[in-house]
Amino acid sequence: MQTLPSQLAFATDYFRQLASLSETFEVSDRQSQPLSFDEGISRAAALVRKQTQQQKKVIFIGNGGSAAVASHQAIDYWRNGGFPAMAFNDGALLTCISNDFGYEQVFSKPIATFAQPGDIVFAISSSGQSANILAGANQANQMGCYVITLSAFEPDNPLRQLGNLNFYVPTMAYGFAEITHLCICHCILDGLMKGALPEADQVEETATPA
User: Fold this and answer.
1) Which residue numbers in the chain have pLDDT < 70?
2) Are 7 and 14 in contact (CB under 8 A)?
3) In-domain check, residue 77
4) How much is the pLDDT for 5?
5) What is the pLDDT of residue 116?
6) What is the CATH number of the domain that holds 149?
7) How far is CA 122 from CA 2, 17, 18, 73, in A?
8) How far is residue 6's CA from residue 124's CA, in Å, rounded to a whole number?
9) N or C, where is the chain less crowded by C-beta within 10 Å?
């Protein structure tokens, strides 16, 4: 079947847009102060290294495609990186919590039970407005966890205000948001595994939990 020029143009433009997002996503701290790309990744990596050395764990939460990112990264962080990591995506758990307490609490309830002060929670939501992700991030903050958020869509989305570190992707497309969020998580882990990121004592201290 013959490929039309417009189809070629779409594919070229798609990957051009995706590549540009890797250079234009934004990072901010708890005070909403902007950080450079390198500084944001380095701080996140240093936080993972430092806290897991203190017997803390990494927790990932997300819905839909972001749930797939959460599960993927939880596996990679413990299997490949050797960091204790988990995601709350078991079907029985999700249906139990949503049936008994409401879907808004499917992440906040497990975090309340399993998280400890000093743990790191990656809260992933393309819209940055998912009620259960916001509840999970708020619960983590209340418990003295470090929160790293990954969001997209509107720049003033509420999730972007809840993290010690906040990664924001300026796109309205789910696919672009999810792929870029996945790449950010991989960059943090791969940098740690390769020893390519600064050690914790070489990076400015990330703010203490809320």
Assistant:
1) 1-8, 198-203
2) no
3) yes
4) 61
5) 98
6) 3.40.50.10490
7) 45, 25, 22, 10
8) 34
9) N
- Domain residues for the domain of 111 are 36-200
Question: Scanning the structure block, which residue is given the tokens 């809260």?
Answer: 123
pLDDT value of position 153 = 98
In a domain, 186, yes or no: yes
Q: Can you tell me the distance from the alpha carbon of 103 to that of 79, in angstroms, rounded to the nearest whole number?
A: 29
Structure tokens at 139: 């619960």
Q: Count how many domains the chain has.
A: 1
For residue 120 the two structure tokens come to 């790191």
Query: Whole-model pTM?
Result: 0.93
pLDDT (0 to 100) of residue 129: 98
- The total of other beta-carbon atoms located within 10 Å of residue 40's CB is 22
Helices 174-194 and 37-53 sit at what angle, rounded to 10 degrees?
60
Q: Judge whether 31 lies within some domain.
A: no
Residue 8 lies in a domain: no
